[in-house]
Ig-like domain-containing protein
Amino acid sequence: MLARFLVHLLLTGKVFMQVSTEISAVGESVILPCLQQDLDTNVFWRHKGSAKVINIMKGKEVTEGQSEIFKDRIQTFPSEYSKGNYSIKLSDVEYAHEGTYSCFIVESNTEKKIDLVVNEKTVRPTKTATMEKSPQAPFSEENSSAEGQPPKVLMLQITVLGLALLLM
C-alpha cells in the first residue's frame, strides 16, 4: 500500500487518499465528505474524473461549466469552509450519479476520492399497510376503546368493575 502511494505521488505529483464509500438511494440526498486542514483553499469537485460537479474558489461556489446532471442538485456549506470542510450535498440522487467523486484541494495538491453507490429506493410500510398485513394485531385503532386502551386491558377493567359491584 505504501509503495503504491509513493509511486502515485512520484508519477502524478498528487497526494491521493481514498476517503470513503457513501451509499444513497434514488431520490434521497447524500453528503460527500471533503475535509482538509487548509482553511483557505480552492477545491474542485469532479465525477468520474472529468464531469464538473462544482468548484469552490476563494470561498465562492462556481457552477460555470457544471455538468447537467448536477444542476440545482449540489449544495455546499460556506459557513464550514473556515473549518476546512468542503463537503457537498447531492440532492435527488439518480443512478447516473453513481461512481467515483474526487475532491481536489489545490493548495495542498491533495485529491480525495469518494465512491458513491446508488441503490433502489425502498418503500417503508405505513401504519395502515402494517395493519392490513396483520389484521389480528393485538392493538390497533379498530380494536381499542375511545380512551385508546387495548381490548384485553379494557376487558380486565370491566371484569374488575363488575366484581367490585357484586361485592357491594
